[in-house]
């Protein structure tokens, strides 16, 4: 059971890493292309904004109990007084309750 969770976590991180690498590669190719067409142009704020809007595998949220940062896609979420709170593990959620 623990091994299954471990594999799931590893898979999530591997996917996140792959996504990051792909984003870097596509960005690098875009930069190369830009240099060929229009050289010596300072980076415009438009490109900086576009970089921020790249979708990520999930948001990082701090565990309410121990403070470990966990991706929302992997974290255990719970409702507390109308707001969503996140925990890194079931053990932390039970400790908090
Ligand atoms: Zn925790």
What percentage of amino acids are in beta strands?
Answer: 15-25%
Mean pLDDT: 81
- The percentage helix is 40-55%
Unreliable stretches: none
Order of helices and strands: HHEEEEH
Short structural summary:
With 97 residues, this protein is an alpha+beta fold. The chain has helices at 2-37, 45-52, 90-96; strands spanning 60-62, 69-71, 76-80, 83-87.
Notes on the structure:
- This protein folds into 2 domains: 1-56; 58-97.
- The chain is elongated.
- A two-stranded antiparallel ribbon has the order 1-2.
- With 97 residues, it is α+β, with helices and mostly antiparallel strands.
- The longest helix is centred in the first third of the chain and has 36 residues, at 2-37.
- The model has no long low-confidence stretch (mean pLDDT 81).
- Helices cover 53% and strands 16% of the residues.
- A hairpin with a 2-residue loop joins strand 3 and strand 4.
- Zinc ion binds next to loops.
Annotate the secondary structure layout:
Elements: H1 2-37, H2 45-52, E1 60-62, E2 69-71, E3 76-80, E4 83-87, H3 90-96
Antiparallel strand pairs: 1-2, 3-4
Zinc ion binds next to loops.
């Amino acid at each position: 059971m623990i091994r299954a969770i471990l594999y799931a976590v590893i898979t999530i991180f591997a996917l996140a890493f792959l996504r990051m690498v792909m984003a870097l590669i596509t960005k690098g190719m875009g930069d190369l292309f830009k240099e060929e067409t229009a050289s010596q142009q300072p980076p415009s704020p438009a490109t900086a904004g576009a970089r921020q809007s790249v979708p990520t595998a999930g948001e990082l949220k701090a565990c309410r109990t121990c403070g470990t940062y966990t991706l929302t896609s992997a974290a255990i979420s719970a409702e507390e007084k109308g707001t969503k709170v996140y925990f890194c593990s079931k053990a932390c959620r039970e400790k908090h309750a």
